[in-house]
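hey m, so remember when u said the tokens were messed up on ur end? i reran from scratch. heres the input so u can diff it against urs
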Amino acid sequence: MRKKLSLSVILFFLIHVLILLPASAISASKKTPKELPERYKKWLQEEVVYIITPKEKEVFLQFASDKERDVFIEAFWRQRDPTPGSPENEYKQEHYRRINHANHYFGRTTPKAGWKTDRGRIYIIMGDPADIERHESHGKVYPNEVWFYKADPKLGLPPIFNLIFFQRRGSGEYILYSPVKDGPESLIAGYIGDAMDRKSAYERLLEYDPTLAPVSLSLIPGERPSLSADHPSLASDILISRLPSVPHKMVEDKYAEQLLKYKDIVEVEYSVNYIDNVSLIKIYRGPSGIFFLYYILQPKRLSLGAHEAKYYSHWKLNGSITDLKGRTIFQYEKSIPLEFTEEQMSKIKSVPFNLYDMIPLTPGNYKFSVLLKNTVSKEFTSLEEEISIPSDSSSLQMTPLVIGYKTESLGRSINKPFSFGNKIFYCRPEKNFIPSENLHLFFQVLGMTPELREKGVLKYSIFRGEEEFLSFTRNVKKYPGNTDFWEEFPLKNFTPAYYRVKVSLLDSEQKEILSEFEAFHISSRSAVPRPWIHTRAMPDSEDPIYSYILGSQWFNKGELEKAKKYLEDAHQKEPESLEYAFNLAKAYYLLKDFTRTKDILTPFLNNNQLKYEGYYLMGRVHQILGDLEKAISIYDTAISNFGININLLNSLGECYYNLGERQEALAAWKKSLEINPKQEKIKKLIESLSK
């Protein structure tokens, strides 16, 4: 018999902590830009109008207070800061310099503000051109400017390109030229020829200005478009259409949604520092029949503090499981301190950080949420995903495939995330490999019949695109065990490309019964950095913590009989745990088994171990069972230990009233009414007794 919770339990789960609200619980009323206070309207519609993403704009309009908008604006700029550790935000400084430049130079020929003009818009988006060529003096072409740019192809733009701005009919604002919509004829001063005869217009422009003419047909150097007006090249217009999205490609705007979801949970100093992540989530059945959610969370970066040749970080993890109705089924908190020497730091500074974790879950459909905060750098990241836990593991089913880069045999079976039997499986969200590695594959087949176990076949197929690249089969009976299946194969003959592996379960007639797919990638690089992993061994499968967690989940789902079964198991294994006993007592109470409620908590009452909730529950039970004197004694002790509140006072008044001690009842209820005057029922009782 244990005298206290095991250390492994304390390290594993801390129950009944901060309630993490699901994202679905947050509802914001979306405003229109006109409804914003003037300074935020100016910020949205003038200062960042060309660089804010549609998602960021949508989120910004949902904030209700100026404080929330200020936090968002700070986060907006931090997400774009190229040097987060420095005191200056170079991106923000450059952006406002471009706005000032546009307003100073590009609004001179039009009543518009410079930032509203075509040249101002492109300048704010793209910055200074590498070169500008102006054509303004000879009178045969309308005034125009050709801006030459070099661009990163990752932005979806050609590596080099031109843009033309011209004054239509020789006056007014310089507008952005389109080879398709405008054509060379629109650049020629006084041109009155057939607009459909683009060849004649081009030849005249070539005569007037040989350097401008080729650009008028295509903004992309080296392209040779058709001179026919009804068969123009669309490449230039595609280029123009992509320019507005260039600033959007420079930022991961997922942070905006996370800021909105967690604005009431995450402290202000964290909220502006969202960091993106990649994740992996899988569901597998443990050896005791419990289903576990396994997950990997990989933040985009791991920020560390330094002190006396030590590098450190401290993460706080809050997890939440809610059902599809938004009810909280389970929540937990973990503390993850990290510390490295200089030698360790040199090894991990260039590799990703992976957090491995696992949670036991009851059957059902849920929303899984994780909030991970770095208390050193004040950064946070989050994960949300809908998951499903099978309700019947006896029916024939195949779990999702998990692909790993390494396995490790353990001396014994251990309960760790992604450990199966006496092996631990190493994988990461990005399923990247190089040809010199082996690919490791794991999955489970549950509910397999003896016939399938004896005569079934597993077929493995690798596809490159739609083409089957590799295929082989294994007899099910060749694998040890009944549910877990491992496979490993070398990648030396795989060329860099994207692949899919398919595993099929075939019956004795080679008919496919079940199948699962998973994708992976063979990299052209010589090496792929493997992550530094933080993981922790969990209690063994017989530890009562699992029964307690599952019982608590059934309790929160309102399935009291199922909750009772698991909570009784936890209490029997660890009868001296107050937490286990109290939650079982709550289940008995709601099932109206008041005698067993009393029996469970009496030892803790006698030893003065109960908290306020325990005293109140015991008082109610004795009151229901008719032992009013004992109930009064318990309520009095609770008031002495924890102070007065209306629940204790009202229950105390009920006991005195039923004993015929009217003055004592009146005193208790009057005190309750002083605390909360809005108790109409208590007012009527006091009036009745006062008469």
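this time it looks ok to me. Residues 90-105 form the longest helix (16 residues). if urs says something different then somethings off w ur setup not the seq
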